[in-house]
Amino acid sequence: MRDTRDHSTEQAIVDRCRKQDFEAFGRLVDAYQNRVFGFVRRMVSGPEEAADVTQEVFIKAFQNFARFDGRCSVRTWLFRIAYNLCVDRSRKNDRSLSEVALVDSSEGEEIEVADSRWQPDQLVMDSELMTVVEEGIASMSEKLRSVLMLHDQEDMSYEEISQMLDVPIGTVKSRLFLARAHLQDVLKRYSEIGV
Amino acid sequence: MSSRVRAEKSGVDDAKLNSPGQLAVRDLVRALPEDTVSMAWRSSLNEQLLGLAAKQQKRRRILWFAPPAVGISMVTVLAFVLMIQPTTHPAAGIPDRGIESAILNDHHASTLSSDVSSAGLNLAEVTSDANETDPDDGVWSEADVESL
C-alpha cells in the first residue's frame, strides 16, 4: 500500500517536472541528492569533483526532463546520467585503475569471520572497517565498482542495471560476483593483518 | 572472443552470488553510511537551476509570440506593397508635367493619327468634324458590298 502511494506520488512529481515545475524538481533533488552524490563520490577521484559532477547530473536532468519517456524509473534515469558523466570525467582525467583479473568462480573463497570488529549483521560499522571497505571499493575497476554500488547499495535489479549500462544480465552478475570477491580478498588481508 | 570476455558474458550462477561470503560483502556495502551534500552545495545548485528556468521561460515566451508576430508583419508588408503598387495603362493620358508632357502628348497624338490615316495621307487631310454626320453610320449600302 505504501509502495503504491509512494509510486503515485513520485509519478505526480515526474509529471510536474516534465512541465518544468521548479518546485517539483526541487523535491526530486531532495529525494536523490545524497544517493547520487554517494555513487558519484566513489566513481570519481575526489570529493570536490564529486560535488561538481553531482550538480551536473541534476542540471542535465532539469534541462532534459521533457525527454524522459518513463520507460525506466526516474532513479535509473538519474543514475544513468550520473554514470555517463563519471565515465566522461574519468576518461578526461585518464584514471587507469588496475582491472581485477577474472578468476575462476570455483576459486572464490569464503571469508572467515575471525576479526570481531567485522560483524556483517551490525548496522553501524566501525570507522576503520569502513575505511578498509571504501579503499577496497576505490581499488577496483570502474566496471566492477559501478555494478557493486548500483546493486548492493542502490538495490537496483539486474535488469535495471543491464538496461542502464547497456550490458547483458550475465555480465552484470559476473561483475557483481567479481566485485564482491575483490572486497572479500581485501577484507581477508585486513583481518589477517589484524591490529 | 577472449576467454575473459566469454566468461564475463556467460554470467555467474545465482547460487554463487547468494553464497554466505558474497552476501556478507553485500551487507557490508549496504551498511556504508549515506553521504550527505552540504547546504552550500544545494544553494549553488538552486541558483543554477533558477537561472536555467528563467532562460527556458524566456525562450518559451519568444516562441509563443513569434508566429503571430511574423504573421502580422507579413500581412502588413503585403498590404503596403499592394497599396503603393502603381496602375499602368498604356492608352491612358500622360499627366501634365509641363514640357515633357507636351512633347509626349504630341507624339502620342501623331502616332494615333498615322494609325488612322496611314502613310499616304498627311495630318491635314485627316479631319474630325463633329457636325458632319457619317454617311455610313454603321450601315452598309449595296455599293459598299459590291466594292468588297
List the helices and strands and how they pair.
The complex is a heterodimer of chains A (195) and B (148).
Chain A: H1 2-18, H2 22-43, H3 47-64, H4 74-93, H5 127-139, H6 142-153, H7 158-165, H8 169-193
Helix pairs in contact in A: 1-2, 2-3, 2-4, 3-4, 4-7, 5-8, 6-8, 7-8
Chain B: H1 3-10, H2 14-17, H3 20-30, H4 39-84, H5 99-117, H6 142-147
| Poorly predicted segments of chain B | none
The number of strands of chain B is 0
| First-to-last CA distance of chain A | 48 Å
Assembly state of the chains shown: heterodimer
Q: Report the biggest beta sheet of chain A as strand number plus sense, adding barrel if it closes.
A: none
The H/E string of chain A reads HHHHHHHH
Which structural class should the secondary elements of chain A be placed in?
mainly alpha
Tell me the helix content of chain B.
Answer: 55-70%
Largest interface: A-B, 55 and 43 residues
Average pLDDT level of chain A = 83
Q: Number of helix segments of chain A?
A: 8
Describe the main β-sheet of chain B briefly: none
By DSSP (H or I, 4+ residues per run), the number of helices of chain B equals 6
The percent range for helix content of chain A is 55-70%
How would you concisely characterize the structure shown here?
The complex is a heterodimer of chains A (195) and B (148). Chain A has 195 residues and is an all-alpha fold.
Kindly describe this structure.
With 195 residues, chain A is an all-alpha fold. Helix content of chain A is 69%, strand content 0%. Chain A has 8 helices and no strands. The longest helix of chain A has 25 residues. Chain A starts with a helix and ends with a helix. The relative contact order of chain A is 0.11. About 13% of the residues of chain A have low confidence. Chain B is an all-alpha fold and 148 residues long. Helix content of chain B is 64%, strand content 0%. Chain B contains 6 helices and no strands. Chain B starts with a helix and ends with a helix. The interface between A and B is large, with 55 and 43 residues.
